[in-house]
Amino acid sequence: MAVKAFEILKDWLQSLEPGTKLSRRAWLEIKYTAPDEKEAKDISEDISKYFLSLDYSDNLSGSVDDIDLVLEDRAQLWAEEWFPKTESMLEISLHCYNWTNVNEGEKVFQMGSFEIDEIELQGFPTTVHLKAVSVVENSTLRGVQRNQTWENISIWKCADDICQRNNIKLYWDCADNPNLDHIEQADESDLHFLMRICQDNGRSLKVTPDQVIIFDDDKMEQQEPILEIVKPGLNDHNPKYALVHMLSNYSLKIKTRDIYWKCVVRYQKGKKKEVIQGEFVNPDMEKGNVLHAGDQVENQAEAERLAKKKLRDANKEQFTGTFSSLGDFRISAGLTAILTGFGVCDGKYIITKAAHRIGSTYTTDFDVRKCLNGY
After folding, report:
1. Is residue 168 pLDDT above 60, yes or no?
2. Is pLDDT of 335 > 50?
3. What are phi and psi of 37, to 5 degrees?
4. Nearest CA-CA partner of 112 in 16, 206, 15
5. φ and ψ of 61, to 5 deg
6. pTM of the model
7. Cβ neighbours, 10 Å, residue 373
8. Which of 134, 184, 319, 327 could pair with 362 in a Cys bridge, judged by C-beta atoms 3.0 to 4.6 Å apart?
9. Of 185, 219, 216, 212, which Cα lies nearest the Cα of 202?
10. Which contacts (CB < 8 Å, 24+ apart) does range 292-296 have?
11. How many helices (H) and strands (E) does the chain have?
């Protein structure tokens, strides 16, 4: 733990009367690195008098993690002499003490490193928003527009080529690796291009400070649940799971249209127009709408795998929800949780986004979707 953060906690503990314990506390440790400097500077104390709030968004796939740091700026320090330089970095940690009970002690959540990419000045009152995104260090993954064409290449090989030219690691966690006849990157950043080919081919992508992760959603959903979300007012918690504390509100949605019974992939290959066809059926339905797709495939097995992914993409948003709770950094994108006491919406869900807000207090909003059965 940083020295300044330790001193904050030490001062609080020394102020207690004998026999009493410190109530819940949360505070941020913020380090700043200018583009022409190698060492980060702890600015936690310097900005504490201007601090209003920080929002941190943790996304499962499709968007990079980001933060929005809001500071009071009536003196125009941030608009003038403290205005951050291009490519400046913020490293942020959240410290909590006795957050869920008086014997818990201190816990630290490393949010990560973020590059400041947008600064917004607002009034009135006069504030500055420092907006930053999670980035791979020393990488051109996000900032350089490129043009390139690939022929007869697998998705993994294409992603690996991009990661190698950016000097970053690729973590591949997919069951199959189909070939593509032709794919083109046109005036796109490598990150935008990777997100596009993953989305087009039923994969998910996550960027962390040290690697690019490409994975299958269904493998994430197969994880054992960690958390349980119990409807307020019920005393029905299963001690096997960690309970999400103090829900303040929730919203659950059930989609009743455009849900499919099965998907059929049909592709005509080559000059002879050889028909390759495969399908996948929703195991929870006996009949219903049929989804048709004509994507390029090499054989029936690949057509069946693609039909499964297409059906999954079409149906995975059938049950979704949004919750708000007391701040809880155990809640992160990619974890699975059990919903209890919500009627037809009960079951296993995956967290698709967690938004942590630290201001006058610490709260967490998070989005979920129900895990599909068998696909």
Report:
1. yes
2. yes
3. -120, 150
4. 206
5. -160, 155
6. 0.84
7. 11
8. 327
9. 216
10. 292/263, 292/264, 292/266, 293/263, 293/264, 293/265, 293/266, 294/265, 294/266, 294/267, 295/265, 295/267, 296/180, 296/181, 296/267, 296/269
11. 6, 22
